[in-house]
Amino acid sequence: MGSMSVSAKQVEVQRIVDVLSKAIAQHRLRPGTRLVEAQIVETLQANRNHVQVALQRLAMQRIVTIEPNRGALVSQPTAKEAREVFAARRAIERAIVESISPRMMAEHAQRVSTHLCNERCATNATDRRAIVRELSEFHLLLGELSGNSVLSEILANLMVRSSLIVALYQRNDVPSCASDEHQEIITALQQGDTDKAVRVMLEHLDELEGQLALDEQEPEEVNLRQALAGL
């Protein structure tokens, strides 16, 4: 890519970060998967330097672990880190919910309605990745609706890390989020009942954490090219 400008380089690095984060969030790349630079370069038609910068950025976000002589791996959060991520989510998502007014909900009514419809369609079908994507998207949507970009960015990182935790520790194959609780939170926010919205969100996060068996498990082998294809 030769004389690529600084801003163009940043855009390209962010593209790689976004694709890898998305693949991890959707459980296409599981904890412990080796992230072979050459395969990422080939699959994403990317510059090797940009891939290295993207992996370093993900390592700073604790989504990727870079080990001497082994290269980059999808992070494998410990049970302690899993509890800490959920504690952080309670604080951040409480702040997000508290900052959403009925007026904001009215302004984004169509978007919220479309999301809940997509969520119900996904949970009624059997595509696990689609279910995981839509249920996670709900939390990110609330982050955007809050209008607080810092809270939204912190939540985005915590959601990817939560996906790793769910992939490692979930007790069964049932999706870790419930659409009914999401509807209850939305209704409370629309009615201006912030206390109820916060209470349901915190109960919801408690339930998600309660579904985890916080003991270590061996990661499965994953085909990196296949996991990144089409993203």
Automatic annotation (TrEMBL):
Residue span(s) of domain HTH gntR-type: 10-77
GO molecular function, one term: DNA-binding transcription factor activity
Protein name: Transcriptional regulator, GntR family
Keywords carried by this UniProt record: DNA-binding, Transcription, Transcription regulation
SMART domains the record matches: FCD, HTH_GNTR
KW Membrane (keyword) present: no
One Pfam family it belongs to: FCD
Organism of derivation: Pseudomonas segetis
